[in-house]
């Protein structure tokens, strides 16, 4: 019997999350997730560059390509990407060892993706970014500050806290 260290640490099973816009059956999506060489990487800083992702994920194996997530309207990074590997084994290694590590002072998370399809690089939120950022209530400078709904209310005159000071229509109270 040959010792294979990969058998000791089996990759985490596919998550319960499913892409609601997947163009196939649930069973097809399950099969795609179990055979995919693509990872979804979330919670990236808006300032993370593609070459940083290549450098980090390249430590696990040969990266085929990185597709940075973009704001649908502004075409600027919006905090996620897809990382495609040449082999499933390299993708598994990345998922085991890189998910939940830090990049640009943020804990990134990775999960299996059924495979990149053109158009998925754009955020699905109503303001063009990610949906999860639409509901964020905290101030996060690495993800553009407050979410756009709060920033919009601020511009309309609703008091909002900015950097520990309360402002109303741009004037300190």
Automatic annotation (TrEMBL):
Residues 37-115 form the RRM domain. Pfam families: RRM_1 (PF00076). One of its GO terms (molecular function) is RNA cap binding. SUPFAM superfamilies: RNA-binding domain, RBD. Keywords: mRNA processing, mRNA splicing, Nucleus, RNA-binding, RNA-mediated gene silencing. One of its GO terms (cellular component) is nuclear cap binding complex. Its main location: nucleus. One of its GO terms (biological process) is primary miRNA processing. This is Nuclear cap-binding protein subunit 2. It comes from Caenorhabditis remanei (Caenorhabditis vulgaris). The lineage of its organism: Eukaryota, Metazoa, Ecdysozoa, Nematoda, Chromadorea.
């Amino acid at each position: 019997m040959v010792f294979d260290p990969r058998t000791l640490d089996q990759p985490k099973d596919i998550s319960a999350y499913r892409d609601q816009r997947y163009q196939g059956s649930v069973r097809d999506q399950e099969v795609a997730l179990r055979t995919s060489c693509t990872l979804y990487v979330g919670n990236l800083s808006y300032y993370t560059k593609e070459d940083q992702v290549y450098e980090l994920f390249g430590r696990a194996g040969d990266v085929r390509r990185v597709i940075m997530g973009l704001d649908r309207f502004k075409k600027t990074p919006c905090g996620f990407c897809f990382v495609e590997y040449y082999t499933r084994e390299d993708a598994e290694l990345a998922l085991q060892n890189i998910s939940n590590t830090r990049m640009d002072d943020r804990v990134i998370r990775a999960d299996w993706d059924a495979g990149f399809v053109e158009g998925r690089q754009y955020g699905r939120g109503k303001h063009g970014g990610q949906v999860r950022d639409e509901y964020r209530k905290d101030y996060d400078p690495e993800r553009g500050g407050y979410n756009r709904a709060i920033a919009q209310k601020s511009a309309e005159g609703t008091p909002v806290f900015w950097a520990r000071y309360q402002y109303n229509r741009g004037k300190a109270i």
